[in-house]
Amino acid sequence: MDKTKSYEISKHIVLEAFQRVKANKGAAGIDDESLEAFEADLKNNLYKIWNRMSSGSYFPPPVKAVEIPKKTGGTRILGVPTVADRVAQMVAKIYFEPLVEPHFHPDSYGYRPGRSPVDALTVTRQRCWRYDWVLEFDIKGLFDNIDHELLMKAVHKHTDNPWVIIYIQRWLKAPFQMPDGSIKERTKGTPQGGVISPILANLFLHYAFDKWMDRNHPDKPFARYADDGAPRRRTSRDRNCHVKLRHAV
Q: Which CDD domains match (predicted)?
């Protein structure tokens, strides 16, 4: 470890993080720097990220808010971090994901390594033969409305790594830069489009939904893909299976 740095972060992990970000592609953030432009000065750019993250002085820039049309009408906001910030988030994800992944529910399929929508559909189809009723749900605005205090409580359950904790907190608070250039502060949610956001959303729902179902309805299997799910019910009168997500963490 570099004794002049506050946190031990491997330079090799920073390089791996860039390689993953590059493989995922993606648009430029508020600085309009593309992946190609970032890579043109790769050594210097990665050193800056490592230096700032390992010294505790990394602060994420605002997230570019992009309006995306919804199939049902209207728009939703997609948050696009800069390339450098996506690399920084990936560094944290590489460290944090192995700590939480083994604890996630076997019937959670979204944004998880080695799992896909096909897996969720397969298990759903198999169970439909054994259950007469299915309660389908879609959590409206999950990424926009996650409670930061409850989420950080869940993060603390799985790590005491100070730099992972401090940077997750900073990413949660990073403001949006709206299409008109104005800055919008955020007090809840995690930007849909961020590298770290899917695993944080899964962690939140692990306690708010998955564990809640196990405690209160252990006889009712479900399949959840991110904010979409389908618990099974044996009768139409089984009203107790209606999920109330306010029972969180």
A: RT_G2_intron
Task: Spell out the domain ranges in the chain.
Answer: 11-247
Q: From 152, 154, 153, 183, select the one nearest 170 (Cα to Cα).
A: 152
N residues, the chain:
249
Pairing mode of beta strands 63-69, 176-177: parallel
User: For residue 60, what are its two tokens?
Assistant: 């994420």
Read off the tokens for 111.
């944004």
Question: Which among 8, 14, 10, 11 has a CA at the least distance from the CA of 162?
Answer: 8
**Helix ranges restricted to H, the chain:** 11-24, 35-40, 42-55, 83-100, 117-128, 142-145, 148-158, 162-173, 197-205, 211-216
Give me the amino acid identity at 173: K
Answer for the pair 1, 83: CB distance below 8 angstroms, yes or no.
no
For 184-207, give one letter per residue: b (16+ CB within 10 A) or e: eebeebbbbbbbbbbbbbbbbbbb
pLDDT digits (tens, 9 = 90+) for 160-196: 999 999 999 999 999 999 999 999 999 999 999 999 9
Token reading at 145: 């409305």
For 85-104, what is each residue's pLDDT tens digit? 999 999 999 999 999 999 99
Count CB-CB contacts under 10 A for residue 240. 10
Distance, in Å, from the CA atom of 239 to the CA atom of 237, rounded to the nearest integer, reads 5
pTM over 0.70: yes
